[in-house]
Specification:
Layout (H helix, E strand, L loop, with lengths): L7 H22 L5 H32 L2 H25 L5 H29 L2 H15 L15
Helix pairs in contact: 1-2, 1-4, 2-3, 2-4, 2-5, 3-4
């Protein structure tokens, strides 16, 4: 199913996060992962985009999805995954991750994104009317506005 234009800003952010996961996985597969540098990049990605993304989902998208009884369980799973991911983002910020945990992070984040795209977004597009999707899109746009203002300079890997 083609992505509804009102969900595209979230989908674009999903693409950014998936690209990060692919880059980390490739470096882990090549046994050339600079764990400190990846943790720095994960921390920066969270600060610049993901924290705003999670807030938009938790404050706007998920409450709308919960209106449908069939999506409530899925939303509960996604909220729990946000909590697990936040913990991993915090560990990265404290430079406490090892290679194995980097791999765990990429699997959890990429699986989470695919679940949102393939299950939540698809279901919402089927359930919600055009007007409801437009209203949701406006609320998401307002919620994501701060992310467009975030500009954090790259950090040194050894900071």
């Amino acid at each position: 199913m083609l992505r509804d234009k009102n969900l595209i800003p979230l989908s674009h952010q999903h693409q950014h996060a998936l690209a990060l996961c692919v880059r980390i996985e490739r470096s882990l597969d090549a046994s050339k992962a600079d764990v400190k540098a990846w943790q720095s990049e994960i921390e920066q990605h969270f600060a610049q985009e993901i924290r705003f993304h999670f807030a938009a989902e938790e404050e706007v998208l998920f409450p709308e999805a919960r209106k449908s009884a069939e999506l409530a369980g899925l939303v509960d799973e996604l909220v729990e995954e946000h909590a697990r991911l936040r913990n991993l983002f915090e560990r990265a910020a404290r430079r406490e991750m090892g290679s194995a945990e980097l791999g765990e992070f990429t699997k959890l984040l990429s699986g989470h994104i695919r679940k949102e795209e393939r299950q939540l977004f698809e279901a919402m597009q089927k359930i919600m009317s055009t007007d409801e999707m437009a209203a949701l899109g406006q609320r998401l746009e307002m919620s994501l506005r701060e992310a467009s203002k975030a500009c954090i300079l790259p950090q040194r890997a050894n900071s």
